[in-house]
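Suppose a colleague, Dr. K., hands you the sequence of a protein chain of 135 amino acids and asks what its three-dimensional shape might be. Before reaching for any lab equipment, you can write down a predicted structure in token form. Begin with the sequence itself:
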Amino acid sequence: MEDELAPIEFMFPGPGRDRIVAAICAGEKTATSSLEQEYTVAGDPFPAVGERGVVIDSFGEPVCVIETTAVEVVALRDVPLPHVLAEGEGYASVAQWRDGHVRFWTSDAMRDELGADFAIDDDTRVVLERFAVVG
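The predicted structure, expressed as tokens, is then:
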């Protein structure tokens, strides 16, 4: 694996991450969503087209290299169905996707990262990222 590339961690270590990493490796997951607030709190820049990173599994081991192919920031109410389907997590509708993601984004672990008073509504900014496995 390319040692100089930044690690990319999906979700938190455990079954959720393992499921997502398997979907990426199988080519089923080619998109992801993050809250703009996650980048703000961490002081990290948004992903950029052409950036590459190493996907890390639950054991901290590199699994594959992905390259960002598109980035868009939209209000939660504007997340489109094609993005939802490209996330490869089995959601058949935007409503299902939203319910699952809001549950994750309001979980105790995410509240620890985002702040207990962070609220999600239709105007919440979501970073939509598309990617491809390149190694």
